[in-house]
Every structure is written in structure tokens, then in C-alpha cells.
Specification:
Elements lengths: L6 H4 L3 E7 L4 E8 L1 H8 L5 H19 L6 E8 L3 E9 L3 E8 L13 H6 L2 E8 L7 E6 L5 H11 L5 E9 L5 E9 L10 H16 L3 H4 L6 H9 L4 E3 L3 E2 L1 E2 L5 H9 L3 H7 E2 L2 E5 L6 E4 L1 H7 L7
Parallel strand pairs: 5-12
Antiparallel strand pairs: 1-2, 1-10, 1-11, 2-9, 3-4, 3-6, 4-5, 6-7, 8-9, 13-14, 14-15
Length: 309
């Protein structure tokens, strides 16, 4: 396998599909840079919260790329810990966004990295949702939060799901310049009717591939000096690995003045009065932190005259 991609274009913000030749197993390598740094720095997140949100964003991008759909795939976690909720979604076109709700100020938690899920989210649930629009049936899988890390929780979901069989490894960290980077490896099991190996050989090939994936360090997954092709070759070269065309990933928020106006129009008179400061209402997007201001004239256009504060 050769690596002819230029340094400038190979490091960040893409999904790299690959296939392990010996077993026929397929996988995805996720590499995120600016697409991850932007949502993690748009809000004043503590590093522990930003890391967990970054893992959810990286995971959602990778799982979305492994599915065949036209719409939005989302990962949502709710718990009774200091992080009340995390939402991350990715479209089939490669647009990602996400946000986290947390206690402010965050309590002092000690060593969060070894077990971020129980320390940050606590007890609760995770939901994996595929939404292909109002005219289609939405698919959703829900599982109790179980495990020390996000990867543990995802594996717990895979074990209980008959829709998706996969293994995943996720890493999110700041680089030497303080910029957030994310990486994920996702191996997907082939359906039995598409696997040329016998059942015993297929099981052995799966275990072998998962062991090789597990040998990848968290630092390697986000190393800007280690290209995607170099990393995949390092892990799977003995079994042969083939790469396919990459798909770009970008941060993209769906908030627009029209969407914000629709949200303001649904507020009650009392809610509008509580939100009004100096004759205007400011609505802030949870995903990108952009503020949309509606002055008195705009509010009168949205509501009847007797409902304006």
C-alpha cells in the first residue's frame, strides 16, 4: 500500500474506508482536526467535558459513514452526573455538530480520564438514532450507560443490537499547539451470507483483527505526523489492507435566522418577558454558540401585538 497523498490534505477531517484482504473485514478510520476543534472551542467547556464531547463527535462521524442512509445519525447520552447530556450528530454528507450540558461550575472529580463515563455522565442511557426525514420511519436504539469509557458503552450497545456488529476505538486529545484532534477506528463484521470464510475461520479472523486494532495507541490515532495510510499499514500489513476513496468531514451547524425565529415564535408571553433585555431577545445556538437578536420590531412581526413584552 502506497501513501502518495500530500501532507497538507491527508491529516485532518476525513473518513478513510479500508478492507483487510485476508479476512474481507471492512473498517473506517476517522481523522478529525479543525472540524472537531471548532465545536469543542465554541463553548467554554472544561477539558474533561470537551474530551467526552469530542469522542461522541468522532464516534458519530465514524458510525454514520458505516451506515447506508440519507439523513442524520445521532448519538445522545443522558445521565445523572455533572454532565447532564451530550448530543453529537453526523449527516450522510459528512457534516458534524454537537454540544454538552453540564453543571457550572463543574465539581472537582479527580482522575476523570480512567473512567470518564461514571464520573461525568453517571447512570443513564445512550440513544443511537437514524433520522431520514419526516416521511420515513426513524430508527432508534437505546441502551443503559454501562462501562468506564465511551468505547465500553458502544460495545455494550453492539452486544445488545442485532442491527450492527462492530468494534471501535476512540481517541481525542490536544496537540502540541493546543488544537483538538480526534481519531477512531471502527471494524465492522460482515454478514454471514457475504463472508467467504467458514464460521470458525471468520470468528478467528474477527478476533485477530480486533487484537490488531487494540494494539494501536491512543497517541497514534491522533498523531498529526502519522498519516492514515501509515497507521493502517502499521496495524494490518501482515493480512493485507486496501484503502478506498476518502469522505470529507466538516463542522456545520443547522441554525439559521429562520429556525431561530420559529423557536422564538413558539415561546409564551411569560417566557418572552423573562428573556427580554433592553427591549430585545437574544437566542443562542447550543451547537455553535452563535447569537441571534430579535428586537422589538422583529418580535412584533413574530407575535400578535398583545403578546409582545
Amino acid at each position: 500500500m502506497t501513501d502518495s497523498t500530500s501532507t497538507a490534505s491527508r491529516l485532518d477531517d476525513f473518513i478513510q474506508p479500508f478492507k483487510i484482504e485476508a479476512s474481507g473485514l471492512h473498517g473506517r478510520l476517522v481523522r478529525l482536526g479543525p472540524a472537531l476543534h471548532q465545536p469543542l472551542t465554541s463553548q467554554d467547556y472544561p477539558d474533561s467535558v470537551a474530551t467526552l464531547l469530542g469522542e461522541c463527535l468522532t464516534l458519530s462521524a465514524g458510525l454514520a459513514a458505516a451506515l447506508k442512509f440519507d439523513g442524520t445519525f445521532s448519538v445522545q447520552a443522558k445521565g445523572d452526573g455533572p454532565v447532564r447530556m451530550i448530543v453529537a450528530d453526523a449527516t450522510n454528507a459528512g457534516a458534524i455538530r454537537g454540544y454538552a450540558q453540564f453543571k457550572d461550575p463543574m465539581p472537582i472529580l479527580g482522575d476523570v480520564l480512567s473512567a470518564p463515563i461514571p464520573r461525568l455522565l453517571g447512570a443513564g442511557y445512550m440513544a443511537f438514532t437514524v433520522d431520514q426525514g419526516p416521511d420515513t420511519e426513524r430508527y432508534q436504539g437505546i441502551v443503559d450507560i454501562e462501562g468506564a469509557t465511551l468505547g465500553d458503552c458502544v460495545h455494550h450497545y453492539f452486544q445488545t443490537s442485532d442491527q450492527f456488529a462492530a468494534a471501535v476505538k476512540i481517541s481525542v486529545a490536544r496537540d502540541a499547539d493546543g488544537c483538538w484532534r480526534g481519531g477512531a477506528l471502527i471494524l465492522q463484521r460482515s454478514p454471514e451470507d457475504e463472508n467467504p470464510l467458514t464460521q470458525d475461520d471468520a470468528e478467528e479472523a474477527w478476533r485477530h483483527a480486533v487484537i490488531l486494532m487494540g494494539s494501536c495507541t491512543l497517541a497514534e490515532m491522533v498523531d498529526p505526523l502519522l498519516s492514515a495510510n501509515q497507521l493502517l499499514f502499521r496495524l494490518f500489513h501482515e493480512d493485507g489492507v486496501r484503502v478506498f476513496d476518502r469522505s470529507p468531514i466538516a463542522f456545520a451547524c443547522k441554525c439559521t435566522p429562520e429556525r431561530m425565529a420559529a423557536a422564538v415564535a413558539m415561546l409564551t408571553l411569560e417566557e418572552l418577558r423573562e428573556m427580554t433585555i433592553d427591549g430585545a431577545v437574544t437566542v443562542t445556538c447550543q451547537f455553535c454558540n452563535a447569537g441571534h437578536v430579535f428586537d422589538g420590531a422583529a418580535l412584533r412581526d413574530l407575535r400578535s401585538s398583545d403578546a409582545v413584552p
